[in-house]
Amino acid sequence: MAHKQQYESLPGKNGGEPPMASKEATVIVSQPAKLSPTEEYVLNLDPNTVAGWSVQEVNQNFLERAGLGYMAEMFSVNKINGKCLMLLTEGHLHELGITCLGDRIYLTELIGLLKKKKREAELSAAKWSGVTPAPGIAYKEDCGECCVAYFCPCCLAKTYWRVTGQGVFYKREPPCGLWTEVRTEYMDYRFFKDLELKTTRKCLCCCTATELEMYVDDHDSSGAQKEGEPPNPGAFHPHVLRHPEARNVEQIIRNSWNRARLVAE
């Protein structure tokens, strides 16, 4: 006579009790994001310096530090210098004859850190910098400002501008002797709405000056805008750059602004 097979209930199923160890186990919700010494070394490299490395320097300063010195001969035969290093992809590494998948992935990650550092450096680098009020009568508000600029330059409030690939920085410094706060502001291209290049006459209306008006969304002057309508430039306080190079600055900002919008899309 056949005996009926007995089944045991599994822990956690149909009222079964889980093992005691699982009750006391600690649930890990996140892993530490600490970088390895090699990753920290790569992130501290200057992309401009790496771009000037010779083939030998790539082998010594990069491959050896990453523990991948056996690839030096392949890099040397294929003349991989610093500039080529930052252009390598995993496909290129496969063409070089690096058959170990783990090493290819690891090296690709390190090169990716270099590329990231290079992009950040390019975005933060100044494409234009200048000071307002700019030299010349045409770039002063009135005769009083012209006299102050000529007889006591330190008594004139100044604004220092810096245009980068990410946005526009400007720092307003008060005249000497005034204990007021130095203001530093940043305008991100993602919030730009419009640019307008103008010519104006300020000092006695005898000279023509060039100025660039920048309309930015994060400085809304509470102008009303209906849903579905395009933004109204008049609804924003423009940031005005009066400078002889305003026309060149407009082109720099437009190019960087377009790239920022392409990345966002």
From TrEMBL:
Domain SAM residues, every copy? 53-117
Tell me the protein's name. SAM domain-containing protein
Q: Note down the stretches annotated as region Disordered.
A: 1-21
Recorded hits in PROSITE patterns, A to Z, give: SAM_DOMAIN (PS50105)
Organism's domain of life?
Answer: Eukaryota
